[in-house]
């Protein structure tokens, strides 16, 4: 019926056709009226462009439209880093960050109050085959693996200094390292390389789904005609937690995107992969029904409601998204308060 109406309006040259027919199809993965969502709500723990490396919250009920909490103020003053959170089987949440080469871990039972839990300083130069590692820990990520009952913490460490003439060689030299732990008090030693590729990788996190393990990463080589995949989000798979990771995908994002984060849709059948267009310009979303793809991008961040299929508060930066219950969502909103949505053009 809508298609017929659009054709009639367009044929008649009526201006109302623009508002009636401009609406694009909605993304897959949403629940229909009367259906109960598999995933009730979502939390986005992130930084902001104006306050880089600090902890802020936004929330969503559909995984697509996000509202800022706490009037845009920090959730805690103690945290430093690129926020990443894992949930242990006992319901405790662990937040990882870093100050320099010291990896810091915080714990919480309710995602509201965070306490310092432990610190860990990896001996970077003891990494097998990577004695040239520089004293640098970038964007640590934390993952709890249910089958092995252990945590994995990943981060990136470079081995070449940048120069004024070639700053990019520093970023190209980034390699992803990891340690494991049963209790986040004692850690495996020495750190190891996660990938055997000689390719710059940063912002790596792990997930298990669809019978495999997946490493979502940023290809940190600078894009050229010889390396067209540079500065894009890609994905690789493995049969076991620590690899070897193979079948590195084609780019899921455009060039100059980073800080990917992955959530399942409300109906549990679709994946939403977010990534930042840096520095703090916007966020993009790619969609697939399998992590192996194919992936396509949603329309958004245009600030025109009839075109945008997702929206985030302005100037949000690196972080992670995760599913939470409606009860947890209500508790966060009650504790911090939710900001009115950003006004958009009609």
TrEMBL record:
Keyword tags: Hydrolase, Signal
User: Which GO molecular function, any one, fits this protein according to its record?
Assistant: hydrolase activity
Q: Which SUPFAM superfamilies match?
A: Arabinanase/levansucrase/invertase (SSF75005)
| Signal peptide location | 1-22
Membrane-spanning segments: none
Keyword Flavoprotein on this protein?
no
Q: What is the name of the protein in this document?
A: Glycosyl hydrolase family 43
Organismal lineage: Bacteria, Pseudomonadati, Pseudomonadota, Gammaproteobacteria, Steroidobacterales
């Amino acid at each position: 019926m809508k298609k017929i109406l659009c054709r009639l309006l367009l044929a008649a040259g009526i201006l109302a056709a623009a508002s009636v027919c401009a609406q694009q199809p909605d993304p897959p993965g949403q629940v229909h009226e009367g259906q109960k969502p598999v995933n009730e709500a979502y939390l986005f723990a992130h930084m902001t462009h104006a306050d880089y490396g600090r902890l802020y919250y936004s929330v969503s009920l559909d995984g697509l439209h996000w509202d800022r909490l706490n009037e845009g103020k920090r959730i805690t003053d103690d945290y430093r880093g690129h926020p990443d959170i894992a949930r242990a089987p006992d319901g405790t949440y662990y937040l990882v960050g870093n100050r320099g080469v010291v990896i810091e871990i915080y714990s919480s039972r309710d995602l509201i109050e965070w306490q310092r839990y432990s610190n860990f300083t990896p001996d970077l130069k003891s990494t097998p085959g990577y004695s040239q590692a520089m004293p640098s820990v970038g964007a640590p990520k934390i993952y709890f693996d249910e089958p092995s009952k252990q945590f994995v913490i990943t981060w990136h460490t470079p081995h070449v200094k940048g120069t004024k003439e070639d700053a990019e060689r520093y970023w190209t030299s980034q390699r992803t390292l990891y340690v494991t732990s049963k209790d986040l008090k004692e850690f495996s030693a020495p750190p190891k390389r996660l990938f055997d590729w000689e390719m710059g990788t940063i912002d790596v996190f792990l997930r298990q789904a669809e019978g495999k393990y997946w490493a979502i990463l940023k290809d940190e080589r600078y894009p050229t005609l010889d390396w067209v995949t540079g500065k894009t989000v890609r994905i690789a798979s493995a049969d076991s937690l620590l690899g070897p990771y193979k079948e590195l995908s084609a780019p899921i994002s455009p060039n100059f995107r980073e800080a990917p984060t992955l959530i399942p849709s409300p109906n549990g059948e679709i994946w939403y992969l977010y990534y930042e267009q840096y520095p703090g310009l916007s966020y993009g979303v790619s969609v697939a029904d399998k992590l192996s793809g194919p992936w396509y991008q949603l329309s958004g961040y245009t600030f025109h409601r009839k075109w945008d299929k997702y929206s985030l508060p302005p100037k949000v930066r690196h972080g992670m998204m995760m599913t939470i219950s409606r009860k947890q969502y209500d508790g966060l909103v009650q504790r911090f308060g939710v900001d009115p949505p950003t006004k958009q053009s009609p």
